[in-house]
Specification:
With 280 residues, this protein is of the alpha+beta class. The protein is built from eleven helices and four strands, in the order H-E-E-H-E-H-H-E-H-H-H-H-H-H-H. Helix 2 links the parallel strand 2 and strand 3.
C-alpha cells in the first residue's frame, strides 16, 4: 500500500504570467531511456506511416519520478484521426513494457491527431498538457509552436466543463464490472481527475496551476477545509485504488456529486453562456 507523499509542485510562472514547462530531455533518468526507445520502436513498427511525433509527459521528463510509483505517460501525434487507426496492439504493448521494466508503475499510450495542434484553440487539453508538461522524444517537436498559457479562468473552464461527463464515463465503466484490475484502473483514473479538479476550482483565487496531486489537494483544502477529509480520501484512492466497483461508485455518488455541483456553480459564474444539455 502506497502512502500519500507530499510531493509535486505548482507550475512555475514567468514574468509575463505564463506557465513554464520544466520538462527537459536532460532531466530524464537514464534508466528510462530504454523504456522510451521501446515505446518509439513499438509505435513505429505498428504505425510506420502514421507517427508524426511522440511525447512523454508527467513526472519522468521533469526528473521527479519515483521508482515503483511513477508511470510513463505517452502522447502520440498521428497524421490521421486515431479513431480511424487500428490500435488493437496498444493494450498488449503497454502490458509488455510494464512487465519488462519493473521500476515503472505502468505505461499509458494516448493518441491525438495532428490537426488538433494545427488548429489549437486557446486551451485545447492535449496541446496544453504538452506545452506545460511534455517533452518530445521522437519526430517534429510541436511544443514550441503552441500558444502560451496562464493559470486563469479560461484554463480552469476547459478543465471543469468536462468534469461531469468524465465522472459519468467512470461510473459506466464500473457498472457491472467484475475485472478487479480494470476496476482499479477506473478508480485511479477518476480520482486523479477529481483531485486535479479540486485544485482548478480555486484557480481564480490562487492564480496557480498544477497537475501534481498533492499540491492540488493542498490548494483545494485551503479554501474548502470542510471537505479536506473527503478530498484526502479521493487522493488516497488515486494511488491505492479500490477493487470494488460498488464502493467506488458509492464514493462518486457522494463526494463526486458534491464536486460536480460545486463545479456547476463555478461554471454558472465564469461560463454562464455555455450550452447546457438537459436530460430528455
Amino acid at each position: 500500500m502506497t502512502e500519500i507523499r507530499k510531493i509535486g509542485s505548482l507550475c512555475s510562472i514567468d514574468d509575463k504570467g505564463y506557465i513554464v514547462n520544466e520538462s527537459k530531455p536532460e532531466k530524464i533518468n537514464n534508466k528510462f531511456l530504454e523504456v522510451i526507445r521501446l515505446i518509439n520502436e513499438s509505435c513505429l513498427i505498428a504505425l510506420p506511416k502514421e507517427i508524426h511525433s511522440i511525447y512523454i509527459r508527467g513526472s519522468v521528463p521533469r526528473g521527479l519520478d519515483i521508482e515503483g510509483v511513477s508511470d510513463v505517460d505517452v502522447i502520440i501525434v498521428t497524421y490521421s484521426n486515431p479513431q480511424d487507426i487500428d490500435l488493437d496492439w496498444v493494450e498488449e504493448t503497454e502490458q509488455f513494457i510494464d512487465q519488462k521494466f519493473r521500476f515503472i508503475n505502468g505505461v499509458e499510450f494516448g493518441f491525438s491527431p495532428l490537426i488538433e495542434f494545427e488548429e489549437s484553440k486557446y486551451c485545447s487539453m492535449i496541446p496544453f498538457i504538452l506545452k506545460t508538461y511534455g517533452v518530445c522524444v521522437y519526430g517534429e517537436n510541436l511544443i514550441n509552436k503552441l500558444p502560451d498559457y496562464k493559470p486563469d479562468i479560461s484554463l480552469a473552464n476547459e478543465h471543469l466543463i468536462h468534469l461531469t461527463s468524465l465522472i459519468d464515463t467512470a461510473k459506466q465503466g464500473l457498472s457491472g464490472n467484475n475485472d478487479i484490475e480494470d476496476i482499479k484502473d477506473w478508480c485511479s483514473w477518476v480520482m486523479r481527475i477529481i483531485v486535479r479538479a479540486g485544485g482548478v476550482l480555486v484557480i481564480d483565487k490562487e492564480h496557480s496551476y498544477t497537475r501534481d496531486l498533492y499540491p492540488a489537494f493542498e490548494l483545494f483544502s485551503k479554501h474548502y477545509p470542510e471537505k479536506e477529509q473527503e478530498m484526502r480520501t479521493a487522493l488516497w484512492y488515486s494511488i491505492n485504488p479500490l477493487s470494488s466497483s460498488e464502493e467506488t461508485v458509492k464514493f462518486l455518488n457522494h463526494f463526486g456529486n458534491w464536486i460536480e455541483a460545486e463545479t456547476e456553480q463555478w461554471l454558472n459564474v465564469y461560463n454562464p453562456t455555455r450550452e447546457i444539455h438537459l436530460p430528455l
